[in-house]
Amino acid sequence: MATAATHQTARTLAQDGQDGQDGTQADVDDTAAYERAFDAAVAADERVEPRDWMPDAYRATLVRQIAQHAHSEIIGMQPEANWITRAPSLRRKAILMAKVQDEAGHGLYLYSAAETLGTGREELLDKLHTGRQKYSSIFNYPTLTWADVGAIGWLVDGAAITNQVPLCRCSYGPYARAMVRICKEESFHQRQGYELLLALSRGTPEQHAMAQDAVDRWWWPSLMMFGPPDDESAHSAQSMAWKIKRHSNDELRQRFVDICVPQAESLGLTLPDPDLRWNEEREHHDFGPIDWTEFWDVLKGNGPCNEQRITQRRRAHDEGAWVREAASAYAAKHSASGAGRGVEQA
Ligand code: 3HC
């Protein structure tokens, strides 16, 4: 088996201009060699880096997943930002503002990771705004009460962590490294949601009921976040072979259910599933059927808030045009004066 150094050499040959790619037999042989080196590197758990040779389909899969992930982060700011002006105390307001800002930051890391694959941010945002790329189904549900902020933190950020911790070991370096930082911040988000729900659950009967109602509404959509069941997941098998995904959708969903059951008990809240029970034989919790018709319907654009989310996103983008123009003008001025200084010094 080739060593790590051999994989690296073969993978970077393409970048060094040694593959003419003009259709000759030598080019075909080169491509086969790059493919073998890529497969060996992935099998050996090496990281693929932006300048390495990679199959077109691997690149396209990463752009699709990272873009969807980035879009989810920035669209996800909307349901929670809805409560910033109505947070019940200064402390809660400061926490929520910090959390929503973190989500914007996550979007930026992820758009940057996608850019390392050669796809510009403008193009990705255009695809989001015109419905050609998706964002997570979960953000098409409304935040009706203050307790929803807690339920999103506990369940939605909790599901995101369960899904994203394995992505820290994704085969593509820039995505994996972005996920390390994102997961640290998501852990804080999950804790603040849990703490908020605990305060409500132990509060007045009305507050307890509000917390329970939020959990009842967010539980099933949170389970849908992990994607369709394995036998309907179009991309899982290939993404797992490439070590982009490390676990299947159903495996992660089961892990999340097992984590949540004892946490719900400590919160003094129930999960809205009469079929939820421990299975001695499987050593996992059994749970009831998920309404996949609802999931696919939300993906088609028919969820309660799809239209509102995308309209608001387009408006924010248009209204922010002057900021992008000002930032570009400032950067251009700065680099021009920087270049000038460079010439003088030379
Ligand atoms: N919402 C919207 N679309 C979904 C989805 C969901 N919850 N789950 C799956 N899909 C889509 C897929 O994108 C795919 O559609 P496409 O072919 O048009 O791209 C189709 O349904 C089939 O699903 P697959 O299982 O074949 O797709 P994947 O292999 O890509 O798996 C995934 C789906 C598990 C979501 C995977 O893409 C993934 O792990 N992505 C990274 C994590 C992510 O995007 N999280 C966003 C949610 S939360 C968040 O980030 C914000 C945080 O602050 C809470």
Task: Give the helices and strands, then pairings.
Elements: H1 4-13, H2 25-43, H3 56-75, H4 77-81, H5 90-115, H6 121-129, H7 147-164, H8 173-201, H9 205-224, H10 236-241, H11 249-267, E1 277-279, E2 284-286, H12 292-302, H13 306-319, H14 321-345
Antiparallel strand pairs: 1-2
Helix pairs in contact: 1-2, 3-5, 5-8, 7-8, 7-9, 7-11
Bound molecules: 3-hydroxybutanoyl-coenzyme A.
3-hydroxybutanoyl-coenzyme A (3HC) is lined by residues 64-65, 68-69, 72-73, 76, 103, 134, 136-137, 156-157, 160, 163-164, 224-228, 233-236, 239, 245, 249, 299.
Give an overview in words.
With 346 residues, this protein is an all-alpha fold. The chain is built from 14 helices and two strands; from the N terminus they run αααααααααααββααα. The longest helix has 29 residues, at 173-201. It is globular. The site of 3-hydroxybutanoyl-coenzyme A (3HC) has 29 residues, from α3, α7 and α10.
Provide a quick synopsis of the model.
By secondary structure, the chain is mainly α. 67% of the residues lie in helices and 2% in strands. It has helices spanning 4-13, 25-43, 56-75, 77-81, 90-115, 121-129, 147-164, 173-201, 205-224, 236-241, 249-267, 292-302, 306-319, 321-345, and strands at 277-279, 284-286.
